[in-house]
Amino acid sequence: MRATIDAGARLVIPSEVRRQAGLRPGMALELRWRDGRIEIAPAPHSTHREARADELAQAGWTCIARR
């Protein structure tokens, strides 16, 4: 499958690839250059709390973190 980088250096991942990979809008991604290829994968969550906050946000909830 082909994709193009636009003038703003953005790459649109085709919908079928996004669906198969489980990628959602706003999801953090990790990119690597390895063996002449670009690898794209969901970025690992730093904490369980962050992962849960993402799940709740996808369900329409909002949350405020206090430090």
How would you describe this structure to a colleague?
The protein is α+β, with helices and mostly antiparallel strands and 67 residues long. It has one domain: Pemi-like Protein 1, Chain: D (Ribbon). The protein has two helices and two strands; from the N terminus they run αββα. The protein has a two-stranded antiparallel ribbon with strand order 1-2. Strand 1 and strand 2 (37-42) form a beta hairpin. The longest helix has 11 residues, at 48-58. It is elongated and about 40 Å long. The mean pLDDT is 85.
Q: Please write the CATH class name.
A: Mainly Beta
The secondary-structure class comes to alpha+beta
Q: Fraction of residues in helices?
A: 25-40%
Roughly what fraction of the amino acids lie in strands? 15-25%
Helical element count? 2
N-to-C span: 44 Å
Rg (C-alpha, Å): 15 Å
Total strand segments: 2
Query: Secondary-structure element order, as H and E?
Result: HEEH
Please state the overall shape, judged from the principal axes of the Cα atoms: elongated
- Give average pLDDT, whole number: 85
Low-confidence stretches: none
**CATH topology (level 3) name:** Pemi-like Protein 1, Chain: D
Main sheet properties: 2 strands, antiparallel
The assigned CATH architecture is Ribbon
In short:
The protein is an alpha+beta fold and 67 residues long. Helices cover 27% and strands 18% of the residues.
